[in-house]
Design a protein that fits this description.
Elements lengths: L1 H24 L2 E10 L6 E9 L4 E8 L4 E9 L1 E2 L3 H12 L5 E7 L4 E9 L3 E9 L5 E9 H8 L17 E6 L16 H18 L3 E4 L9 H10 L4 E8 L9 E5 L6 E5 L3 H33 L8 E6 L3 H4 L5 E8 L3 H7 L2 H21 L1
Parallel strand pairs: 1-5, 10-11, 10-12, 12-16, 13-15
Antiparallel strand pairs: 1-2, 2-9, 3-4, 4-7, 6-7, 8-9, 8-14, 13-16
Helix pairs in contact: 4-9, 6-9
Amino acid sequence: MNRCKEVIPIILLVLSFLYVVKIICAPVELHKVFHYQSNASHLSLGKLIFYFDEVPEITVKKREHTEFMHEYVFSFSNATIVLQEVQDAIEEIKLGRYAYNLAINSNDANKILDVIFSFDIRDIGFVRQEFVAITGQKAVAFNFYNKHTLERLQKKETGPILQTTCNKRHPIICIDSGHGGKDTGAIGINGTKEKCVCLSLAKQVGDELKKNGLRVRYTRLSDEYISIEDRICFAQKKNVDLFISIHANASSNRLISGTETYCYNPIFSKTVYTTVENIDMSYLHLYQKKMFHKSFAFAQYVHEYLCDTLVTQNPYFCDRDIKHGSAQVLYAAEVPSILVEVGFISHPDEEKLLNSFVYQQSAARAIVRGIKDYIAST
């Protein structure tokens, strides 16, 4: 009996050790990869973002081909690609032409993903960050910056390139209707598809904005699938002043209801590697901070009007506050941007309201009042 008492703790210790080893050695699945290229004259030249279950072990090697042409190789250990659509996205990214040289190589046998950049360090700098996305996935992001624009930022020669306030005379608002096409979004207990609610509400917001003399651009006006990359590129090409993404929320708990609004806050992104000099980083942080304050103010105006309006028509309404989330469309945006979750499609009664034209119209008018007041405040 005493012998057994001595052996049991040892067995438990060995089992615990084997469990830890299994967790450490378990492959980390890459769920999504996203690349966004900006205008060559802008501060941000592009963003490359990987979404994993957990952040894999990452090592970096630097090679100097010439005095100014440098190459960086980031190796993601134990990373695996399961979904064909992820592999397809990688192949599409590799075919692109960018301000920097970019290659992504995967070795399924060794479970290693190599991300390779090369560029002239006089023109380009990059920052690698990590953050937790709204979905809970762990993101590894590479942000590329135009060093010449950073120099202009230091000299306060910013001009329209770094504009963070609206064109008051003729502002352009981009309305992003969430999901679409093969991406249905959440589906309510009565069969309501989030993509349909988003599109209907987006059109009503656009109509109300145009009645108020504001210019509108839609990322989609029909039931079609549009990638996040294309939505962001569309907004950038149209030189919009504000970006609002409209969604309906969902939860496994059907009792949860209410409205919440998201904006991106850079303090929740951890910088783990950079080639940008300290003085440039300080100005970059200043610019990002200014953009966050603009987005947060935008969120406040819209969220307050939505809550004040919907609480009078929805007995299940709950003000779920403004939250700092790292959704792709917010992380990559170059103008004040917000994402609005108008209500919970998973709540049976709120689902019915979200399907109601009258309720949608009230929500749309509230959103427009918020947009107008925000523009007037800038």
